[in-house]
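Thread: quick sanity check before group meeting

JM: Hey all, I'm pulling together slides for Thursday and realized we never actually wrote out the predicted structure for the chain we discussed last week. Dropping the sequence here so it's in one place. If anyone has concerns about the input, flag it before I start.
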Amino acid sequence: MSGASKKRVRKEDVATFDECDAGSWECTVCTYRNRFEAFKCEMCDTRKGTSTRKPRLNENVVQMQKVVQNFVVQQQEKAASRYA
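JM (edit): ok, ran it. Output follows.
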């Protein structure tokens, strides 16, 4: 064991995720956490709104999500083939 002492963290000293992000909102389309003042998502331009109407999908966001998903799948397949 090293000479460095371990510092205890009290539960009340740790901020919860909700407390840290109390001044923000999560986009219903891309889940990006936006600043409270923003009236639309900074990533996909979906309006914040409080409407129950389903937001329209931004085709650019959908396409980018497909590209990322395909990349992740390819990387997983490469990793699996190395260990097979």
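AS: nice. The chain has a mean pLDDT of 77. The two ends are 39 Å apart (CA to CA).
JM: adding both to the slides.
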